[in-house]
Design a protein that fits this description.
The protein is mostly beta strands. 0% of the residues lie in helices and 42% in strands.
């Protein structure tokens, strides 16, 4: 089915031009700047184009009985970006929202603290990690409950770790799942060992002391050696900012 029009200023020999076509398989082909809608208050598809390339777009909207836009819906801009109108939510009934690497959710419309450096939430990850010896003594640990979650740059990692029998006197150090921000190490981040069988009169802390490892301090002060932790169990959770 074809819909054609003939301009008023053309002569009698001029034929009409096709403006909309409904094909046999149900596909609709329309000319530029032709809105279509159904019912008095239905959905509408608007295609706009002119000589200014930057002003071309396609838009889904709710129209009123006069064919005017009553509620802006989805607008696809000339550069491929999309704008959602209205005040409702966007619901995905099945599947996921997939974001390209290096991009995320931009919260720049919110208020900022004076030291704000970024408002882009660009990562989420969770899984298991394998703590390894960071002291240089080539120790092999046994461990369980080795889980981590990373939201943006914030990392929370936990583990129940058993040291092997050793007489090595190097400072005990264990690797982390992600590299630490250089401004958040030097024991500025870490956590408390909630289980330890070294000495019940001590508080053992897991302190992040460089960009890749955590060490263990007695009462938050003296760093413990591999020999002091020989055969001991440490259960801890560390929270820190990744690089």
């Amino acid at each position: 089915m074809l819909f054609k029009v003939k301009p008023n200023d053309t002569g009698p020999g001029s034929g009409p031009s096709t403006r909309m076509e409904i094909e046999q398989d149900g596909k609709i082909a329309i000319g530029n700047n032709i809105p279509i809608w159904s019912g008095s208050f239905g959905g509408g598809l608007f295609l706009k184009g002119n000589n200014a390339t930057s002003d071309r777009y396609a838009q889904l909207a709710i129209v009123d009985s006069n064919g005017d836009i009553a509620q802006t819906g989805l607008k696809i801009n000339n550069n491929g970006s999309a704008t959602f109108g209205g005040a409702g939510d966007v619901t995905i009934t099945d599947g996921n929202l997939v974001v390209a690497s290096g991009h995320g959710i931009d919260f720049s419309a919110t208020g900022d603290a004076s030291g704000m450096a970024s408002e882009l939430l660009d990562d989420y990850e969770e899984g298991t990690w394998s703590p390894a010896d960071g002291s240089g003594a080539s120790l092999s640990f046994s461990f369980t409950h080795n889980r981590y979650t990373k939201v943006g740059r914030l990392v929370v990692a936990c583990v129940r770790l058993t040291f092997p029998s050793t007489s090595n006197t190097s400072l005990a150090q264990v690797t982390l799942p992600f590299t630490v921000d250089t401004n958040a190490n030097a024991s500025a981040a870490g956590g408390v060992c909630t289980e330890q069988n070294l000495n019940t009169d001590l508080v053992v802390t897991a302190s992040i002391n460089d960009t890749t490892k955590v060490l263990f301090r007695s009462n938050g002060a003296t760093a413990l050696t591999n020999a002091q932790l020989s055969g001991k169990i440490l259960r801890f959770t560390v929270t820190y900012q990744a690089a």
